[in-house]
Amino acid sequence: MSRTVSPTTAFRQAALALGVTVMLAGCAAGPNPRDPYEGFNRAMFEFNDTVDTYALKPVATAYKNVTPQFVQTGVGNFFGNLGDAWTAINNLLQGKGEAGMSDVARFALNSTLGVVGLFDIATEAGLPKHKEDFGQTLGVWGVSSGPYVVLPLLGPSTVRDTAALPADIAGDIWRYKDPTNVRNIGTALRIVDTRAGLLDASSLFEDAALDRYEFLRDGYLQRRESQIHPDGDGPSSKPKKDDSAETSAPVSSESPAKELNSGTPAAKPDSQ
User: CA neighbours within 13 Å on the CB side: how many for 222?
Assistant: First the structure.
């Protein structure tokens, strides 16, 4: 008798297999200390790129061309508002009390006067939008990023950020939405809307990069470092040679692939 495996169970099994693969790959570290699993990562990069090219990108392009702009804005605002709640928790965990309370106010204002987040009136009210996840929180707490890892479907990450994924998934309000079919449809819509917002950036990325893998990897690692240590005071910053030496300005985290560096989230539909 065949047994149906739920998408959630399949994702967990894939994550376990990834962990085993990464541990085995550690025995043969490559020349780049930030990317000792480059062989595995490049294979995952090609897999993700193929899925994006033949599935996600065409759907996102059709969505962007057909869906009215105000609908796309509303979808982005709605899911962005849900993300503000988890961002608020992470800002508070990082000791950023002012930013955390601003995020709480944003969520409350947009969820009520903004019609469940469809309208972003909080920004107009002077409450800036932040984006924090548990990987950043661990980084602020002093946890090293560890090597670079490319996750199947999820894209660029690090060992630390991968370990933080269960907390980020648990902190997503939408995953508790019932009924299940509405939750799954909403998850698919969120992914397509997010990818549609990256179409212009991805075109620039494809045109600019000679080695797209290295371009994305270096941009992602640089951006994550700047997110966790925006003042350039992280462990990777260079120490002064002597007391009188002037420190150079921190390297800018801006890059043509900036909007791509966070990767494209994969669907995590639950089944009951």
Answer: 17
Strand 148-151 relative to strand 155-158, pairing = antiparallel
Within the chain, which residues score under 70 in pLDDT?
1-31, 208-209, 232-272
The structure's pTM equals 0.74
Q: Which tokens belong to 268?
A: 């995590």
In 3D space, the residue among 143, 126, 106 whose CA is nearest the CA of residue 229 turns out to be 143
Question: CA–CA separation, 223 vs 29, rounded Å?
Answer: 24
Backbone phi, psi, residue 56, to 5°: -70, -45
- Angle made by CA atoms 202, 207, 212, in degrees to the nearest 5: 75
Residue with tokens 């595995």: 40
83 contact partners, CB below 8 Å, separation of at least 6: 131, 172
- Report pLDDT for 247: 36
How many angstroms separate the first and last alpha carbons of the chain?
20
d(CA 240, CA 150): 34
C-alpha–C-alpha distance, residues 196 and 177, integer Å: 24
